[in-house]
Amino acid sequence: MKKILITGATGFVGSHLIEFILKNHEEYEIFAAKRRRSDMDNVAHLMNNDKVHWININIDDYNSVETAFLENGPFDKIFHLAAQSFVVFSWNAPTETINSNITGTLNVLEATRKHSKDSIIQLAGSSEEYGYQEKFPLTEDLFLRPLSPYAVSKVATENLGYQYYKSYGLKTILTRAFNHEGPRRGEVFVTSTFAKQVVEIEKGLKPPVIYHGNLDSYRDYTDVRDVVRAYWIATEKCNYGEPYNICSENLTKIEDVLNKFISMSSIKIERKIDPERMRPSDLVKLKGDCSKFREKTNWKPVISVDQMLEDIFKYWQDKLN
Q1: How many domains does the chain have?
Q2: In this structure, is residue 18 part of a structural domain?
Q3: Contacts (Cβ under 8 Å, ≥6 apart) of 75
Q4: Could you say which DSSP state residue 9 is in?
Q5: Could you report the per-residue pLDDT of 42-85, keeping only the tens digit for each?
């Protein structure tokens, strides 16, 4: 069978990617990388699948990464999803963010170069790389002006992907996914924190008060199940070493997301600003142009934002039962 390596396999995106591959590509066996201390809640339902092999990797440690390649590779495809992905946390822990995201990516690229050079390797970038811009929608040719340590780290990892393509001929696929949400999203992220708070209020677990940060920003949301499908298609059809936006090309105001969740409850809910949820610098609007990716792959999202939010709400209802 063909082999796939997924780093960050226990995470939000990783768990959905595993499900997608199992459902649509039976010819592959999956080597799902996790840390020894990883929370396995997202993938508990996948633990006994005989096509998923769980391996321990610390991407910050090159020896750990190389050992995994030597023992399990070479791989036909690599999806490098492991990262410190919470933007707010990156201001509080910039060194950890840089180490995990840049050094971790470098270690994976080096191990690929030495031991799995024919792999197609997808590097998961972010719309946060664009930072401060005056032109919308955002296209791949814009000069990047990152506004957080997380965004800086993602610019660097994308540049490493380009460098390894040009220097060593690695088959790097560079994706810039805009905001993607869905079931199993971590509770520190805005859609999940809103949904969880409303469900807790519904169940009488907390007073009827929602705490929030900035509600005036706009984001280009895509369901995570559409995004992992895009990641797969990217490895099949996109040019190596080139960046591709993955997005819906539609804007949703954060306040409207909160209103949607509140409308799912019959309880009157008060709102309060939590200063801890405010960013030192924030992007008012992130709207992408997906035409380059769409023309290359014919991909388009099929799950609406409303459906995505309803599924997140149901996830938290089930989880808090």
Answers
A1: 2
A2: yes
A3: 3, 4, 5, 31, 69, 116, 119
A4: T
A5: 999 999 999 999 999 999 999 999 999 999 999 999 999 999 98
